[in-house]
Every structure is written in structure tokens, then in C-alpha cells.
Amino acid sequence: MSKDCIRKDQGLKKDLQWCINSISNNKATNLNLDLVWSEYDNEDVLASILRTRNDIEVHEDSLFKPYESTQVNNLLKNIQSTSFDVFELKTLTGNNELITAVMFIFEELNLLSKMNLNKSNFENWVSAIQSGYKVDISYHNKTHATDVLQFYHLILHQFGGFEVCGLNTVELSSCYISAMVHDYEHPGVNNNFLVNSSDPLAILYNDKSVLENHHVSAAFQKAGSAFEGMSSNSYKYLRSLVVSMVLATDPANHNSCMSHFKNKFAEEPFVESHEEKLLMLEVMMHFSDISNPCRPWNLCYAWTNLLFVEFFEQGDKERTMGLPISTLCDRQSVEISSSQVGFIDFVIEPTLVTLSSVLPKLLDNLQYDLEFNRKKWGEIASKLSQ
């Protein structure tokens, strides 16, 4: 998105200014924009957090038809790149980034035909899933789901995941569906909040992977006739894979999952059994979900700011309700840049290195951006400490 485009489109410029004002005026969020402001002029920063506003009205008669747009088609040609800008896709498709990306991938790979699925029925389900993502949540929304979908697609087709795992059509489709639904109906608070507040969802799922269980269960309840045409066994297999992958996105399972992965592939970094394939699918999904630090800096920075808007809003609720304030959710004590240095050092980089033992192209292609982002966060942290 060029500066000239922003200047000429007054409506877009107004939305972008809303984004920056919303963040800048909320000084307690510790977003540290003042420290990085000098590195970009206002329009560059606005462009980097392009269209984070989610409450735009979109009327049925004006819904964007993605395949009639040269701009969208040109953008989607870059869908297998780490620099793919999902915020621009959101803008160009009139807030329909998830359904656009899902249908593009399924049609490009001819997955619907291979599974004997009716396109209209499946597209209706995808539309329902997109609508189920809440519009007033800054991070865990349909734009994030699209971002995860695109990164998983990247791992599969640029970094060797598809070939190494030897995926069939149902298995490949399950990867995309898991990314699509993995945060469906996310309430903008984490499992810790739901458990501590005795939320009905926490009671329903016995405090275990509360959100993840809800995301996948609620999504399949909306499926309707989306999978008519598949055999019963194929559908059961697809659903079992999606359930496993979505449950693997629970941060509480990170350490045990990575330990299991290391033990499984310590001697032979090859996928030979079904158990090994499933483990690979789970870890690739989990890594896609936390992949923002592996993006170019403008995207990494924008996503991090959006995440902490959501985190701090949760912390405010916890303080008001007298609940323990969850990790990284206290706007009065959390310093974002330092937290990101730690996140990269202790979560992202070890996960990348571990997964790269089986998919070496990952490290080759993601290491530069990850190290650059780590350096940038470190520089901001150093300025803050002076």
C-alpha cells in the first residue's frame, strides 16, 4: 500500500488515522510508539497497521468479489511469501480476507473437487466461520486466522511440509481447515481468565484447553452440509485431524509438545508413521499460530501491538474483577519490547530450530527476519532502560 494511495483515499486515511489515534492516545498500553516513531513517518506507521479496525460495516450488496479484482489476484500471487500482507488483503476484499484466502487455496489446489464437495455448501460454511470471528477484538480475529492460514500454506508448499509428510488430499485440507477455525468465536480473553472467572465454557470443558475445545467444536457444529459428498470414514478422519491440530494451539501444551517432538525425531528426522505425521501437523499448526516474529518487521510490529491491546484489555478486566492478572496482561508492569525479546529467545527460536530439524528450509528462510526483529525489540528495550 503506497503513501500516494493513502493520500488519495480520504476514507482509508480516516480509518488509518483512527488506528493510530486509538493506540497513541492510550498511553497506559506501553506500546512504545514514541520510541520507534522517528524511524517511520506517520503514513508509514499507518500503512504498517493497515486496517486493524474491525467494525467496518459491509453490506451484502457491496460485498467484494475477489476474483473480479486484478489487485486481489496480484496480491494472492504472493500468498506463498513471508512478506504476504494480510492487512492489505483485508482492505482490498472489503473485510472478507478469510473467505477469500480459504477459497483461493482450495480452488487453486482443486481440493473441493478431489473430496467431492459442493463448492456452494463449503463456501457457505467458510462464510459462517468468518462471521463467527468477533469484530471488536484486536488480535484473535479473522485477520489473524487468515494470517495463520497463509503461514501454514507457506510451510507446506515452500518449506517442504507437504512433501516431507506425504499428505493426501484429506490431510492437506485438514491443515487449512484447522487454521481457518482455530480461534473461531474467540472472546478476547485467554484460558486463564475463563478458568479463574468460572466461565461456563471452563465448566463445560473441565478447565482443559477451554478455548481450543470450543473453537473446533463450535466450528463443526456450523458445518451443515459442507462435507456432504465425502465418505463417512474420510470425514471422521478429517475432523479428527482438525481437532488434534486446533488443540495443539493451546500454549499450555507447548513444552510437552516440543519435548515429544524432539524425542520422536532425535535420531531419524524423517516422517514414517502416522503418529509422526500427526505430530508434524500439530507442530506446524502451532508454529503457524505464533509465527508473527518470523515476519518482516512492519508486520511483526503491527501484530505485536494488536496482541498487547487485547492482553491489556484482559488485564484491566481481571483487575476490575479482583482476579489474578494473567502473564503479560498487566499494562502497569509489562514492557512489550523486553517481553518480545524473551518470547523470541525462549519460545520462537527454539521452536523454529526444533521444527527445522525435519524441515531445514524453515530456518534457511525465516532466520533473517527473526534475528532482525529480535534486534529491533532489543534496541527499543535498551532505549527504555536508559
Description:
With about 375 residues, this protein is mainly alpha-helical. The chain contains 21 helices and no strands. The chain has helices at about 5-10, 10-25, 35, 40-50, 70-75, 85-90, 95-110, 110-115, 120-130, 140-155, 160-165, 170-180, 190-195, 200-205, 210-220, 230-245, 255-265, 275-290, 295-320, 335-355, 360-385. α7 packs parallel to α10 (about 140-155). The longest helix is centred in the C-terminal third of the chain and has 26 residues, at about 360-385. The chain starts with a helix and ends with a helix.
Structural Rg: 20 Å
Indicate the multimeric state.
single chain
Helix content: 55-70%
Low-confidence stretches: 10-15, 21-64
What gap, in angstroms, lies between the N and C termini?
35 Å
Strand-pairing-aware structural class: mainly alpha
Which outline best applies? globular
Strand content: under 5%
Number of H/I helices = 21
Total number of beta strands = 0
Major β-sheet profile: none
Can you write the helix and strand succession as a string? HHHHHHHHHHHHHHHHHHHHH
Mean pLDDT, nearest integer?
88
